[in-house]
Amino acid sequence: MTQQIRRLELAVGLRLFRREGRRIAPTEAGETLAAFAQRIFQLLDAAGDALDGVAGLSTGHLAVGASRTAGSYYVAGLLDRFKRRHPGIRVSLAVANSQIILARISGFTLHAGVVAGRPADPNLIARPLARDRLLAILPPGHLLRRKRALTVHDLRGQPLILREPGSTTRRLIEEAFAARGVTITAAMELEDNEAIKSAVADGVGVAIMAHAAVAGDLAAGRLLGRRLRGAPVLEFVLTYHRDRVLSPGLAAFLALVPRRGVRGAAERTGGL
């Protein structure tokens, strides 16, 4: 254990960690102390938001998170509009899968986030932002290219390139396959949408992706997109913790989202 942990254990008079093989796990006392530490960090964060409230919209910090698809195709416009209206507020953007972003919002290390799918945590408030359709993505020349629409059963036996576990898109795909009695097996797991598209274009396999993520590639003919019957609609939401102090910066950011959200590219064009 480090000297810092030893000093902390001496200060509280209790053992806070125990060794389990090669890993170190917290004791009951360690977990109790961690819970209080988390509350202290939350209070410090709330104090910062309250001070930002005193300063108004002339200064402050807004920490936003986004799932990988949302970060690439839906958040940039929002942040650009926000910075043009409030140049004095410093903005940071963290991009990860939805599971990680939601955990950071719950842990009060992010003010808000844009993710796919409504969060299950009742403490997280979600505002609709955009809706998009999942499409089956094929390389040019694929045997399934002649079909205008595909089913889950059409993709059975095809090497599927999927996002990593923790991705909402991955979860929705798995649920759609399971609902139709089809077992899904990933031929490859990739965390980056661009890497998935490159793998499909190279003939490694097929993928299921949001229309917004592939619109440019479809228009250029680098990839083929086909409707996937029964595929769920991908809903992107702007979410934040109900217990978070609404600083002027966060309130102004939330105000950028229309009450009814905005339509995704696939909805405006009717998909493919």
Name its key features.
disordered C terminus; alpha/beta; D-Maltodextrin-Binding Protein, domain 2; two-stranded antiparallel ribbon; 10-stranded mixed β-sheet; 25% strand; 272 residues
Task: Give a structural overview.
The protein is of the alpha/beta class and 272 residues long. The protein has 2 domains: 30-130 and 235-269, 3-Layer(aba) Sandwich (D-Maltodextrin-Binding Protein, domain 2), CATH 3.40.190; 133-232, D-Maltodextrin-Binding Protein, domain 2 (3-Layer(aba) Sandwich), CATH 3.40.190. Helix content is 40%, strand content 25%. It contains 10 helices and 12 strands. The protein has helices spanning 3-12, 28-55, 68-73, 75-85, 98-106, 168-179, 193-201, 211-220, 248-255, 265-269, and strands at residues 17-20, 23-26, 61-66, 90-95, 112-116, 124-138, 149-150, 160-162, 186-189, 206-210, 224-228, 233-241. Helix 6 links the parallel strand 8 (160-162) and strand 9 (186-189). It is globular, with a radius of gyration of 22 Å.
Specify the number of helices: 10
How many individual domains? 2
Based on secondary structure, the structural category is: alpha/beta
CATH architectural name of the largest domain: 3-Layer(aba) Sandwich
Quick one: overall form? globular
Rg from alpha-carbon coordinates: 22 Å
Q: How many beta-strand elements?
A: 12
Average per-residue pLDDT, rounded, comes to: 84
Say what the CATH topology of the largest domain is. Answer: D-Maltodextrin-Binding Protein, domain 2
Question: What is the level 1 CATH name of the largest domain?
Answer: Alpha Beta
> Order of SSEs, N→C?
HEEHEHHEHEEEEHEHEHEEHH
CATH superfamily of the largest domain: Periplasmic binding protein-like II
Strand fraction equals: 25-35%
Please outline the major beta sheet. 10 strands, mixed
Unreliable runs: 261-272
